[in-house]
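Session log. Operator J.P. requested a structure for one protein chain; no other inputs attached. Running the standard single-chain path with token output.
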Amino acid sequence: MADYIREREGQKVKSATVLSELATLSHLYTVVRSAWGMSYLVNPVPLARAAKPKVPRGRERRLIGDEEARLLAAASPEFRAVIRFVLATAMRRGEIAEMRWEHVDMKRRAVLLPKTKNGEVRDMPLSPVALEVFGSLLRRIDGSVLGASTNAISLAWKRTVKKAGITGLTFLDLRHEAISRLFEDTDLDMLEIRAISGHKTLQMPARYTHLRTHRLADRLAGMGRTESAPVN
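Structure written below.
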């Protein structure tokens, strides 16, 4: 098993992919031992724990200074709506591209996402900003909300950051920014934020929990919820 891990690493396979393969192999042994009666088999995956690759830390790039204003100023009117929508909802690029008007319920303040990265249907609650963006859009004949493919969004992003003179910022960083703001600017708990972000486990949202420490410190100092100071 350790040799297999080294072989995959030699093939420049991402650490997350190798760990996913190991999890599949480990589950196979669990099934074989419990369901097929082969309890004598030893699961080799835990034995190769020392050889397991380390997953690199996730990106921590945030919008700095006036970068948000510069992005919005540099973007076309259509793409400006995309940027505002990501920051308001933390939706993924593919989810935004797939949005259709028949799935938007302005009365319930929600949009149904039938096609997501983790394969689960998600009902996305809409913030006032997201509702404002929806209200500013014209209805397209083809039913698409934004009328942009994932590739079109990627190309528009490259043009926009270049025009804005911003470096080191990816489109995915906008989603991370949005999730960070949910922790910083709301009192939603982690389960509620996970329901919005669409993460399948609590592991990813847990990366952002340190952002709320200042709020807890403010509460210990006797401040109310609305008195909490923003994170610099």
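Operator note: The mean pLDDT is 84.
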